[in-house]
Structure formats: C-alpha cells, structure tokens
Design goal:
By secondary structure, this protein is α+β, with helices and mostly antiparallel strands. It is built from four helices and seven strands. It has a single domain, classed as Aminopeptidase (3-Layer(aba) Sandwich).
Length: 152
C-alpha cells in the first residue's frame, strides 16, 4: 500500500469517476457525471483546489474547495474508500484542504451535509467546524457548518 494525497490531474479522471460512482452506490445514491454531477468533467474550472488520495495509483479519496465568495470557500467532494476509514486519512485530506484555503487567503470554509452522515460530521467537528445557518438552497442538506480561518 502506497498512499499519497496529490492535486487532481486529468490522468486520474477515469479512476476518480469509478471511485465516486462506488462511493455514491455505497450511499444509495446515483453518480450522474453527464447530469447534475457534470462538474466532475471540468474539475480545474469548477474547483479552486481538488485533491485525490491515491492508493497504488488508484483514487481512494477526494476533497475539494469551491469559491463561494471573496472570503469564503465551500468544502466539497469529501469521500474516502471504506477500507481506509478510521485510519487518519480523512483527517489528512481535511488538513490538506484547510491549509490550501488559508494559503489562498480565505477567511472561512463552509460545508453542507446530511445528518445521516454522522462519521463525516464528527470529523468536521474534530477539525474545528461549527454549526452555522443554512447558506445555500441544497434541498438534500440539513447540516451546515463553518470553520473560521482568520487568526488561526
């Protein structure tokens, strides 16, 4: 097992699509790369940063930042293969994206999630995220969180 976290590269696209599809299936959801998930086809334009966790060259984790305002980025696409959970890799992905947000000058990071994803929510809280008001119109989300970066 050789695990690294690297910036997204177009050469990872097929592996990322396969990985994301498997994550969605595990969650009982459908990955629609030609529909509502079409942004996966243009990662460099859609996201400020996008990291892939590679295990022997295959995507087994991801996390991204999307600009939502001058001072705010949104955490997106945090997924980790089930066999790698509970081993600190989720924390590593989060640390990487939080550091990137700070380096890019963002004052805060927001995220939305669903209350059924308790493991992810626990990770967000451990990383310093706190509950906040709804900031978007995502009909599926019922958890909204924010991490303040300035002064940290």
């Amino acid at each position: 097992m050789s695990i690294v976290i690297v910036p997204y590269d177009e050469s990872y696209k097929d592996s990322l699509f396969d990985f994301t599809d498997s994550c969605f299936k595990e969650l009982g959801k459908v990955f629609e790369p030609s529909g509502r998930h079409s942004f996966y086809g243009d990662i460099d334009s859609y996201f400020e940063v996008f990291y892939c966790l590679l295990d022997d060259g295959q995507v087994k984790g991801s996390v991204a930042l999307k600009r939502t305002g001058d001072d705010v980025a949104e955490l997106k696409c945090l997924y980790l293969a089930s066999e790698l959970r509970g081993k600190g890799f989720g924390r590593q992905l989060m640390s990487k994206v939080i550091s990137a947000a700070a380096l890019l000058g963002y004052g805060s990071i927001v995220l939305d999630s669903m209350s059924q994803y308790q493991d992810a929510i626990r990770l967000y809280r451990r990383m310093g995220f706190e509950d906040t008001d709804r900031y978007n119109d995502n009909p599926y989300a019922d958890v909204f969180m924010r991490l303040e970066l300035k002064g940290k």
